[in-house]
Amino acid sequence: MVRTLSAMTMACAAAAVGQILLRHGLQQVGPLESWGPMALASFLWRAMSNASVVGGTVLNAVFYVLFLVVLSWSEVTVALPLTALERGDPQGGGARAALGRDHPRDRRGRPDRAE
Q1: DSSP states of the chain as a string?
Q2: Binning pLDDT at 50, 70 and 90, where does residue 101 land?
Q3: How large is the C-alpha radius of gyration of the chain?
Q4: What are phi and psi of 76, to 5 degrees?
Q5: The model's pTM
Q6: What is the signed CA dihedral for 25, 8, 86, 88, rounded to 10 degrees?
């Protein structure tokens, strides 16, 4: 389980930073004004030659490779909830679900759970 958590933590960090880089790079590239062949080719060239877009794409690829590795180690019911780490899930719901543990705060006020 430790290697699964470690790999998913690295994967989610790569995806989060990758998405930030993509957003930053695409703001530099500018909007796609039309779907004409020349406008589309120009947009794609500008995007593919932007370091932030390339870096973000590479980091997102790292996420998918690590996610595939984790799926080879554990069940999808463990790996998929851990992707909530990418969003910085403040309640830790993904990790709790994967580990099968409740947060102590979840037990308060629920008659079916001990205090």
Answers
A1: -HHHHHHHHHHHHHHHHHHHHHHHHHHHH------SHHHHHHHHHHHHT-HHHHHHHHHHHHHHHHHHHHHHHS-HHHHHHHGGGGGT-TT-HHHHHHHT---HHHHTT-TTS--
A2: low
A3: 19
A4: -65, -30
A5: 0.67
A6: -140
